[in-house]
Specification:
By secondary structure, the protein is an alpha+beta fold. It has helices spanning 2-25, 63-66, 70-73, 78-92, 98-112, 117-120, 134-144, 182-186, 189-192, 197-215; strands spanning 32-39, 46-52, 58-62, 151-158, 165-171, 178-181. It contains ten helices and six strands.
C-alpha cells in the first residue's frame, strides 16, 4: 500500500511539473490594457481607465470594485496588476491616520503572504465588477482560460535588515521553495510576469507599502 501511495505521489509530481513547464513556454494573452487612473470624486478612490483589446470602447471602474473581481484581474498583465496593487495601497492604507499606517499595512501584508489562509480566500471573490454585457465577460474568460503561470507565491519573511520582504515561491510546481527579495522581483519584469496577476497585485501592494515606510521612518 505504501508503494502505491509513493507511486501516486510521483505521478502527481510529474503531472504538476509538466503543467508548470508548459506554463514557462506558453505565451499568455491579456485582453485588458491599463490606460491610467484618476480620482473618483464620487467614491473617493482611484478610477481605473482601461481598454479591452478588440473593443472600441474605453472602460472605467473604481479600483475597489475592480479588486473584487478575480475574473477581471486575470485580464491584466502581471506588470500592470503590480501597478494596481501599488494604487490599492495608496487608496487604502495612506488614507488612515499616520499612527495607524504601519500596523494596518503589516496586518494586510501578513494576510497577503498567507499567514492567515482562511481569511485570504475571502479577499478575492469572483464577482462581476461592474455593469458590462455578458458577452464581454465571456470574452474575458475565453481569452485567459489557457493562461499558465510557472511561479506560485507561497509566502514571505523579513529580510535580515528587516526593511525588506523575502518572497518565497515555487517554480514548475516543484516542492522546493525559492527565495528572492521582493525588490528584485519587482525590478525584473521577466520574472514578475511569471506570477498570476492576482499575486502580482499583492506584490505591488507590499512593495509600495515598504517603500513608503522606508522613506517616512521619522514621520510614521
Amino acid at each position: 500500500m505504501s508503494k502505491l501511495k509513493y507511486l501516486a505521489k510521483k505521478i502527481g509530481y510529474i503531472i504538476n511539473y509538466f503543467y508548470y513547464f508548459r506554463a514557462s513556454i506558453i505565451k499568455n494573452t491579456f485582453p485588458c490594457k491599463l490606460l491610467g487612473e484618476k480620482l473618483n470624486i464620487f467614491e473617493g478612490d482611484s478610477l481605473i481607465l482601461f481598454k479591452i483589446l478588440g473593443k472600441k470602447e474605453n472602460y472605467s471602474i473604481p479600483l475597489s470594485r475592480l479588486l473584487d473581481s478575480k475574473q477581471l484581474i486575470e485580464g491584466f498583465h502581471p506588470l500592470e496588476a503590480t501597478k494596481l496593487g501599488s494604487l490599492a495601497f495608496k487608496d487604502t492604507i495612506l488614507k488612515l491616520p499616520k499612527d495607524e499606517i504601519k500596523n494596518e499595512f503589516n496586518k494586510v501584508k501578513h494576510i497577503m503572504l498567507g499567514f492567515a489562509p482562511a481569511y485570504l480566500n475571502t479577499m478575492l471573490e469572483d464577482k462581476e465588477a461592474f455593469d458590462m454585457p455578458k458577452e464581454i465577460y465571456s470574452y474575458l474568460n475565453s481569452a485567459v482560460t489557457s493562461n499558465l503561470y510557472p511561479y506560485k507565491l507561497v509566502g514571505g519573511k523579513l529580510a535580515p535588515n528587516k526593511d525588506n520582504t523575502i518572497i518565497v515561491y515555487t517554480i514548475f510546481g516543484k516542492r522546493d521553495g525559492h527565495e528572492k527579495l521582493l525588490q528584485d522581483i519587482i525590478e525584473n519584469s521577466n520574472l514578475l510576469a511569471k506570477f498570476h496577476p492576482a499575486e502580482a497585485i499583492k506584490l505591488g501592494f507590499i512593495y509600495a507599502g515598504e517603500n513608503f515606510l522606508a522613506f517616512n521612518k521619522d514621520a510614521i
